[in-house]
């Protein structure tokens, strides 16, 4: 008779705790860090760890992270589907995949972007601090757990105000290292932006500095799941897994993204307070110079206050979702080839 | 006193969010004082209101120095205060993370830009600030180590402590940082309240500002000369964390001396009422920050102690 290992004990516990069915032996749900709440509740940051049956420890490792912002839900579906596909075909797994589905569980439960008690943006506290307050402590433990990965993908869904086309965002400091991965992520658009100091406190920036190449994906809108965008990203993730030697399945067809480095991004802001009504319907995408993106209307006097016109031939990859706007509100981002 | 609207954000159904400035004296831009940047900073707004009331009287008595101008901005976020939201309520954005601002961007960045255009160029910038965690500080002056900070000037407020800290990435988009990088000597004043009004520490803050303005030759005001401050670096403050969760009873107040091994807090089981943890001081020193909420979660910082300092 063999004694169970600690890992098996944790697995058994988590299966009971979360009512997971053990349909195969490839996955193991671990607690990365936990914090006791004042009244009989523990907040747990979980990860689902997958490795091939005869793992040697030398396999490539991908970390998939999401839920840093509690109002971003597409990543939830992405995690579900990536896990489902790995579980359905464990024989195709030849590397390690760690899925961190929710770094800010309290925010997600409440539909809040930040940590609810402090209204604190968790993506401004990385790399964290083991001696710091709760958010910094959690951030430090998450970073420690991810270190050692060959690649990390941090999945975001904009916020409740702006809708985004599937895109990969890179800080120009890391562009050389990350562009080869970004190009095969099945994104519509890869946006390389200039470095801003405040972004140094994000998970992606911190991990890139600590030697873990990390991509940020943005798509959809807060508090919603866009199935089509999710499926697009899932194909991109499996494509990357194949590239890293982690997955032996059939390579999905992926699109070649438009690169921001070949053109310029125009930001269109409101000149009036009012209601923004989009003229683009459900889908963003290609637009001609002079075409209408939408109107700012006044519901009080029945007037159009401003017609929003595309400044160039290009693609609309960001669009205001919440119609209530003030002067200065970002309405759209249009990428135009130079 | 001259009252003016520095910037206005047009509302959809609400009246415009007007940022009002109060100018005292004329001439050289001497000092600028900013109150509530966040909608829950009621103490900070209250301190500004008391300061404006006092400066009005001083001006009527000719106590503002010749060729010196003081600008006081009680709040930039009237919209947030009126709906009890900390951040700019339309897109839930922290205005104090939008500096130096941008007039071609969203309304919080426009507010930041308009405010910064109005408040830069002053010799001294003073902001009444708040901390994101629930807790009380010993009233103190805080400055970031940008290379332009001046602890000796901060000492002239006459508060007990001056705290310096290395800026984190998120600090680089605050008003204080932008002020310092643009030639203004910038100070943040922390009192021991945020979303409630604490009269005693508000009076202390008003006195500290008037003491500073007097010492810089900007106003003539006769008040107690205050303390010679101890200057401490934030990383020297020893954090004490709770290693469990429940009802929280703090046994020490900011300013209290503690000795190694003293019981400084108790955590009680929220259902059964038993004391489940007595938290002991890990060092001798003075309590600088103390958690205030009636409950505590695991790993929360409940105290910060100035080590090896005595009353």
Automatic annotation (TrEMBL), chain A:
A Gene Ontology molecular function term of the record: metal ion binding
Zinc listed as a keyword: yes
Hydrolase is among the record's keywords: yes
SUPFAM superfamilies attached to this UniProt entry: Zn-dependent exopeptidases (SSF53187)
Residue ranges of every copy of the Succinylglutamate desuccinylase/Aspartoacylase catalytic domain listed in the record: 61-242
Keywords: Hydrolase, Metal-binding, Zinc
Protein name from the UniProt record: Succinylglutamate desuccinylase/Aspartoacylase catalytic domain-containing protein
Species of provenance: Bacteroides pectinophilus CAG:437
């Amino acid at each position: 008779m063999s004694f169970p290992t600690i890992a098996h004990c944790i697995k058994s516990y988590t299966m009971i705790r979360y009512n997971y069915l053990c349909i195969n032996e490839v996955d193991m749900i671990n607690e990365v860090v936990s914090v006791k709440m004042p009244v009989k509740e523990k907040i747990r940051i979980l990860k689902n760890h997958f490795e091939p049956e005869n793992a040697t420890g030398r396999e490539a490792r991908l970390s998939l992270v999401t839920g840093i912002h509690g109002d971003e839900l597409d990543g939830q579906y992405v995690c579900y589907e990536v896990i489902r596909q790995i579980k359905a075909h464990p024989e195709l797994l030849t590397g390690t995949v760690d899925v961190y589905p929710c770094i800010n569980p309290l925010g997600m439960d409440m539909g809040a972007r930040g940590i609810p008690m402090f209204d604190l943006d968790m993506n401004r506290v990385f790399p964290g601090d083991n001696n710091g307050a709760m958010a910094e402590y959690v951030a430090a433990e998450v970073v420690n757990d991810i270190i050692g990965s060959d690649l990390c993908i941090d999945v975001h869904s904009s916020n409740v105000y702006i809708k985004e086309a599937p895109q990969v965002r890179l800080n120009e400091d890391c562009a050389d290292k990350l562009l080869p991965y970004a190009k095969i992520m099945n994104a519509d658009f890869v946006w390389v932006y200039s470095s801003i100091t405040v972004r140094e406190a994000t998970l992606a920036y911190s991990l890139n500095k600590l030697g873990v190449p990390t991509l940020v994906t943005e798509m959809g809108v807060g508090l919603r799941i866009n199935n089509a965008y999710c499926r697009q990203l899932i194909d991109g993730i499996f494509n990357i897994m194949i590239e890293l030697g982690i997955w032996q399945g059939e390579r999905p067809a992926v699109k070649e993204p438009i690169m921001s480095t070949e053109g310029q991004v125009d930001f269109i802001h409101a000149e009036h307070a009012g209601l923004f009504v989009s003229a683009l319907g459900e889908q963003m995408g290609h637009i001609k110079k002079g075409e209408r993106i939408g109107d700012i209307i006044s519901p009080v006097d029945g007037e159009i206050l401003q017609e929003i016109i595309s400044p160039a031939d290009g693609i609309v990859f960001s669009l205001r979702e919440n119609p209530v706007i003030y002067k200065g509100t970002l309405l759209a981002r249009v990428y135009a080839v130079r | 006193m001259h009252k003016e609207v520095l910037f206005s954000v047009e509302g959809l159904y609400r009246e415009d969010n007007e940022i009002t400035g109060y100018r005292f004296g004329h001439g050289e831009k001497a000092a600028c004082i900013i109150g509530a940047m966040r909608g829950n900073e009621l103490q900070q707004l209250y301190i500004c209101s008391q300061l404006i009331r006092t400066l009005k009287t001083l001006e009527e008595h000719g106590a503002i120095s010749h060729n010196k101008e003081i600008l006081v901005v009680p709040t930039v976020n009237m919209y947030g205060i009126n709906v009890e939201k900390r951040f700019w309520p339309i897109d839930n954005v922290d205005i104090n993370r939008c500096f130096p601002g941008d007039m071609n961007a969203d309304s919080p960045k426009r507010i930041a830009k308009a405010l910064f255009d109005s408040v830069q160029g002053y010799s001294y910038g003073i902001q009444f600030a708040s901390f994101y965690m629930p807790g009380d500080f010993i009233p103190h002056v805080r400055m970031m180590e940008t290379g332009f900070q001046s602890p000796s000037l901060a000492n002239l407020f006459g508060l007990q402590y001056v705290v310096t800290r290395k800026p984190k990435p998120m600090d680089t988009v605050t008003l204080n940082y932008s002020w310092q990088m643009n030639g203004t000597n910038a100070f943040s004043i922390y009192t021991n309240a945020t979303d409630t009004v604490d009269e005693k520490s508000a009076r202390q803050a008003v006195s500290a500002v008037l003491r500073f303005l007097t010492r810089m030759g900007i106003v003539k005001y006769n008040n107690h000369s205050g303390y010679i401050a101890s200057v401490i670096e934030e990383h020297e403050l020893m954090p004490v964390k709770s290693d469990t969760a429940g009802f929280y009873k703090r046994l020490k107040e900011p300013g209290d001396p503690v000795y190694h091994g003293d019981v400084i807090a108790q955590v009680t089981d929220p259902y059964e009422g038993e004391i489940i943890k007595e938290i002991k001081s890990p060092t001798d020193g003075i309590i600088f920050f103390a958690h205030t909420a009636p409950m505590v979660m695991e790993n929360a910082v409940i105290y910060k102690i100035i080590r090896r300092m005595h009353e």
